[in-house]
Amino acid sequence: MESGQRISRKGRKLGSSRRRQTREPADGQDAPVTPEPESWSFQADAELQAFFQDCGAKERGFVTREDLADSKFSFLGSEEEPQMIFDWVDMEQRGQLSLEEFSSGLKNIFGSSPSTHRLHRSRPSPSRVPATASFPALEEADAEEKEAFLALLGQLGTSHFLPEQTELWQLWGKLRQEEPQLAGSLEGLVAKMSHRLQEVGADKEALELALRKRDSDHQREVRQLYEEMEQQISRERQQLQAQSDSRGLALSSQMQEVLEAKEREVQKLAEGQRELEAQLLHLSNTQQEANSENQQLREAKDDLAGQLEEMQGRLQVTRRHLDAARGRVSWQIEEKPSVPSSSEKAPGLPAVCPEEPPLPEQLFGDNDDWDQLLNFSSPPHKALQLSWSPPPTPRDTSGPQTPRVVRQISISKSHALLFGQEPSSDPDGAPRSPPGVFCSTKDGKGVDLEGWDISPECPVKSHDPEPNREPEPRPRAHFPWSLPGSLVTAALHGLIPSEDGPAPPGDAPPPQAPAGASKQFQVPDADAKGPGPAPAKPPRQQEALQELFAMGSEPGPGFQGAMALTEGSAAPARGLPSAGQTPTGRLEQGKQSPGRQEGWPGGLREAPGRAPRPGGLPASPLQSPKEEPKPEEGKPVARGSLDLGSEQAVEAPGQEPGYPESPQQDPLHAPPPTDLPQASGESEAPAPGQLSPPGGSPPGAAAGSQEPTGNLPVLAEPEAHPRPPAMTVLVEGEAGPSQPREPRAESRPEDRGTDSREAGLTPSLGDSMARDPPADPDYLFHVIFLGDSNVGKTSFLHLLHHNAFAAGLTATVGVDFRVKTLLVDKECFVLQLWDTAGQERYHSLTRQLLRKADGVVLMYDVTSQESFAHVRYWLDCLQDAGSGHVVVLLLGNKMDCEDKRQVPTEAGRQLAQELGVSFGECSAALGHNILEPMVNLARSLKVQEDRLKGSLVEVASERPPKRAGCCF
Ligand SMILES: Nc1nc2c(ncn2[C@@H]2O[C@H](COP(=O)(O)OP(=O)(O)OP(=O)(O)O)[C@@H](O)[C@H]2O)c(=O)[nH]1
Ligand SMILES: [Mg+2]
Fold it and tell me: Does residue 924 line the site of ligand 1, with CB under 6 A?
């Protein structure tokens, strides 16, 4: 076994040496020549071929290491594994060897004959054994040999013993013993080999150095490349990032813009949707309102249709009555021969707005001579007749707002008939009057106002259609001014359900008839005055007019005036005269009169710039007597008459003690005058204060009974008494007996007390005038209030007369008239105050009035620049009228509205200086500066009058003094 292993080991060593020999030629070194295989037996070759066959290598053409796993070769030792043969042969370690390569490899290792090789190896060399036995071990060798051997090893590069060195030692020793000549060769060979080894080592180190250097260079280059790549990657990444960012920003901005645009669109759409919703809501509301209005209109239409039918029936009945009464009724306006007939048309009539109902034709008729109609000093046998529309009432009351308008101013002749006929009363005390004749003159001719007798409370039955029929005692109304109201009433009876129901179609008296439905108040002169029964309760207008003329209670010798006051509050339309005639004309006019204009629902119209009256319907006085009198309406209601009356009862008052304007502080305490002396002997017209009491009560008693108490007569107006829509004043210019002063059956303490406090009017002369009005006014002037509409003329006058501001007055229609008595500097001034309408359609009418003006209060509204600018227009009108010596007072009203002021006070003052007129500012609402301007105006008028008297004697002789008249 040991020998086998040794052979195997040898074989391996030989194999390795052989392998080394096979390698050396490959390296190109001068390797030794490959020894030929010693012996490669046929058996070995056969085994090899069998192996190729068994493992399939022959088919594949190559041998793998695995193929040798189970192979057995006879030339291999037992300890040698067949796979080692493959490792020996496969020096390049390719894993597979071709059959040729494997065969030649084996042959190179084992020789041509493996058996020989085995034999050779198994047969020891005869010299090697004894030599081995004779050569001592290295440790036992002598020092010389050992030194020589170490030197040899030193040449080989090893200085210490290795296990192989022992074998080398023995080989070297053997060689020195057996073949000493080869020892030197061995040493040379060893030296050469060591040299070669050193060279190889140097080469190796150089190569390693070069390799390391190259490796470091490579590493450096790689690192550099890596860094460069990293930098480039970083740059590119940054670029990409920047591009991405910019692209993202652009995209985001675009997206933002798009989003904002979308959002705006959405908002617009939302707004549009909201607007549409609002519009839809509005439209739906509007539609609902329209539906409700349509419903209301339909209902109103149905109501109106029914009412219209009823009205038509009533009108037909009325027309029949009018036709029946036509022959009996006469409408006369007797004038001097010089006075143009009423049929003539006079130019310059007030323009009538086509949209507004025209003024009645007989309202300042075309042919009226204003000199005649308005002359206070009417000649004898003439009676001045004034017809009034109902006075306007404040809007804040529930009563109707019938505009007040002068319906007629005419002159009739003697009052004989009038005064010759005692006022008749029915058993209940209601005044009576002869049928068909309301105011008659002494010679039998008179003004027949029956055409206006349309008081709803006057039963139709009382109007005898037959002219010759004796009058029957019945309540009647002879108020020309009652026409509109009657019409309205008639209309309203059809339109508005009255509490009392419609007016009785026949002669059934209205509910209030006995109390004051139709009353006639005649003021007989002294001669004509008889013991006729006086009305138990004179109508309010009647009393008011009594008060109006109460100042000159007893006319002078030349005064034979007669005054008749009638009152028709609300008469059925039955008494209307027939159409076609003068009365009919008036009737027709009355249908379009302002009274109806305001009273008729369909014709309700407000003056421009005025707020419509709430409810739009006139109120009740014309509808139902019960609805008329209200506390607030007391004054306005009776304005047509009470204005005049209050002038004496309240106004004169204007002169209460302590009045600053008056130097005469002491009130007059003279006994109430019983006569109104004529201002001039020529004057035949009574003073404005002259009014006969209805029942002929002694004036002294009446006045004396009240004035000492200081309490003004209380207006004992029955609650249910309807407001008189108009009044008629008949003043006869013929001399006659003095009229007894009417007793003041009614007093109005509220006017004095409350009004004075409210208005703040300076009480001074009023009391004295009220208590002791002068019998004969020293001066009488016509003062016309001019100015644009809405400036406050009527409010001013209302305050002046009633000491209370009446809010909500309607626009004046035509012209209004009041009398104001002032005691200034111990002289009695009677101012006839004409309240004109500022609306343009009445300007021509106003222009006619201007001809007789003594003084003009030209009013503007300090809150209206336009009204201030129109001041020059009104002055031009004044100049055109030829009124050269008119005293003008420029008055700016509404100074309480300081926040709305458009006209500075200085501007008004400058204009007044420029125009040479007086100037002042006032507030009708506050009652500021109301009476003072009038007192100053009275003084200026007096100065003007005195100057004219002195300088124009001749003219004055042709023209009766103003003081002699009581009206234009
Ligand atoms: N604040 C204030 N309002 C006033 C004053 N005077 C009158 N008014 C108001 O002005 C409006 C017109 O008043 P009116 O007296 O009817 O005016 P007018 O000048 O008579 O108008 P016409 O009759 O159309 O010419 C009414 O509403 C009054 O209440 C005032 O001093 N201050
Ligand atoms: Mg007015």
Answer: yes
SS3 content of the chain, % helix, strand, coil (to 5): 45, 10, 40
Binding site membership of 642 for ligand 1 (Cβ less than 6 Å): no
Span from the CA of 610 to the centroid of ligand 1 (angstroms): 10
Q: Ligand 1 atom closest to Cα of 835?
A: 20
pLDDT at residue 434 greater than cutoff 70: no
pLDDT band at 816 (very low <50, low <70, confident <90, very high): confident
Q: Whose CA is nearest to atom 7 of ligand 1?
A: 792
Ligand 1 pocket, residue 813 CB under 6 Å: no
Ligand nearest to the CA of 606: 1
| Local structure of 325: helix, strand or coil | helix
More confident residue, 241 or 669: 241
What's the 41 CA to ligand 1 centre distance in angstroms?
162
- Asked whether the CA dihedral 279, 280, 284, 290 is positive or negative, the reply is positive
**Beta bridge mates, 406:** 388
Angle between helices 180-326 and 163-178 (to 10 degrees): 150
Q: Name the DSSP class of 354.
A: T
CB 82: neighbour CB atoms within 10 A? Answer: 16
Looking at all shown ligands, the one closest to residue 391's CA atom is 2
Whether 37 contacts 108, CB under 8 Å:
yes
Distances 845 to 367, 405, 661, 671 between C-alpha atoms, Å: 13, 12, 34, 41
Task: Calculate Rg over the CA atoms of the chain.
Answer: 74
Which atom of ligand 1 is least distant from the CA of 926?
31
Among protein residues, the one with the nearest Cα to ligand 1's atom 27 is 808
Ligand 1 pocket check for 646: Cβ under 6 Å: no
Ligand nearest to the CA of 811: 1
Measuring CA to CA, how many Å separate 545 from each of 161, 266, 521, 537, 809?
176, 78, 10, 14, 22
- Say if ligand 1 is within 6 A of residue 759 CB: no
Mean pLDDT of the chain: 58
* CA 408 to the chain's CA centroid: 48
pLDDT at 295 over 80: yes
ipTM above 0.85, yes or no: yes
927 CB within 6 A, ligand 1:
no
The closest-lying atom of ligand 1 relative to the alpha carbon of residue 611 is 27
pLDDT of residue 476: 35
pLDDT at 92 over 60: yes
Structure tokens at 580: 């076609």
pLDDT reading at 16 higher than 50: no
Global pTM reads 0.33
C-alpha of residue 785 to centroid of ligand 2, in Å: 9
Are 110 and 44 in contact by the 8 Å Cβ rule? The answer is yes
- For the chain, give me the number of helices (H) and strands (E)? 28, 17
Phi, psi of 567 (to 5 degrees): -140, 125
Instruction: Give the DSSP per-residue string, 692-731.
Output: --TT---HHHHHHHHGGGTPPPB----TTPPPP---EEEE
With 80 as the cut, is the pLDDT of residue 781 above it?
yes
CB environment 565-601: b (16+ within 10 A), e (fewer): bbbbbbbbbbbbbbbebbbbbbbbbbbbbbbbbbbbb
Q: 929 CB under 6 A from ligand 1? A: no
Cα-to-centroid distance, 609 and ligand 1 (Å): 11
- pLDDT per position as a tens digit, 420-433: 333 333 333 333 33
Provide the CA 597 distance to its chain's centre, in angstroms.
33
Packing angle, helices 582-592 and 180-326, rounded to 10: 160
Q: Which of 389, 784, 790 to mutate to test the pocket of ligand 1 (most atoms within 8 A of CB)?
A: 790
Ligand 1 pocket check for 838: Cβ under 6 Å: yes
| pLDDT at site 170 | 78
Nearest alpha-carbon partner for 590 in 405, 343, 360, 388: 360
Give residue-wise pLDDT tens across range 250-266. Answer: 988 889 999 999 999 99
